[in-house]
Amino acid sequence: MTEAKEAILLVGGKGTRLRPLTVHTPKPMVPAAGVPFLTHQLARARAAGVEHIVLATSYLAEVFEPYFGDGSLLGLHIEYVTEQEPLGTGGAIRNVASKLSSGPDEPVLIFNGDILTGLDIRALVTSHTVSGADVSLHLTRVEDPRAFGLVPTDGTGRVTAFLEKPQTPEEIVTDQINAGAYIFRRSVIDSIPTGRPVSVERETFPGLLASGAHLQGMVDSTYWLDLGTPAAFVRGSADLVLGRAPSPAVPGRCGDRLVLPSASVAPDAKLTGGTVVGADAVVGAGARIDGSTILAGAVVEAGAVVTDSLIGAGARIGGRTVLTGAVIGDGARVGADNELRDGIRVWCDAVLPDGSVRFSSDQ
Fold first, then answer.
1. Which pLDDT score, from 0 to 100, does residue 359 have?
2. Residue 3, pLDDT above cutoff 80
3. 241-293 tens-digit pLDDT
């Protein structure tokens, strides 16, 4: 059997690094390439043969079910379990176990709600089945692994250790990191303690390894991006539109731009680099937008120049304003002739008057 019929999707995080995007919206529901990011993950799981998905929710849990319902529109059966108290990754997995119908030895796919990946899910399941592992982990290689936990493996792919973020060059024994997707033997899920926070990365996996369990790593170095920061989220959305990151859920053909049907874009506006213009958004004459996301109902006025930025729902960007690497919260108003650069964040409903913020070229 090379398919996992069931999956758990961990979508409970607060997304604090993504604020102000996540003030009103949980991170998995922030639109990427025209639909909530979670839609891409659900569609990819369905394409890999998954039929039943349990969403482990916590922060703003009430928004998921009204949007996805029972999952039938995506060809899935979706159920929802809300944590009352934060339980960590392992605790969240254990907390939803009662919703699973898989037998003790059957594979269950588990993945984090903030990773955009081209992982071959079926190949991970096949590797898990063939190796007879208790848990299989998707590993990816990164150039600089210092920000990640390292997962060295032996010649057969068997995991030999879990190493915390390395602090010295000597501690960097591998460039393989935990990429946030797993196959668990169902019985392993049932062995996680209940009723308290558990970290799968710091407690469950090292504990299994110490007890002699078989943990298998599969290195898959296709597209992989942690969408934890606004800059990464904007890039991930653009990569979906450009076709660099695969998803069956992009609502249109891949290319330089994705304009949702109810949006209005001036004929001489220039949209490039995987830019998304959301429902009912307006882009004025002569505006130039590159690699950016304009969410529903936002307005970019004439002559504005927007690069690698995200403009929240219902926000307004004044004429000739320049945004580079900026995040504008829902409902914010940035007046004309402003210049905002380099990771600046404007909070939801904030108002910046015309010409109030400028960067000189020598800064």
1. 66
2. no
3. 999 998 999 998 889 999 999 999 999 999 999 999 999 999 999 999 999 99
pLDDT band with cut points at 50, 70 and 90 for residue 24: confident
For residue 255, what are the contacts with CB-CB under 8 A and spacing of at least 6? Answer: 241, 242, 243
Q: With bands split at pLDDT 50, 70 and 90, how would you rate the model's confidence at 361? A: very low
Q: What value does the mean pLDDT of the chain take? A: 92
Phi, psi of 204 (to 5 degrees): -65, -55
Amino acid in position 5:
K
Q: List, by residue number, the catalytic residues.
A: 165
Instruction: Reply yes or no on whether the pLDDT at 51 is more than 80.
Output: yes
Do the beta carbons of residue 306 and residue 317 sit within 8 Å?
yes
Q: What is the pTM of this model?
A: 0.91
Per-residue tokens: 137? 């982990």
Contact 339, 309 (CB under 8 A): no
pLDDT at 13: 82
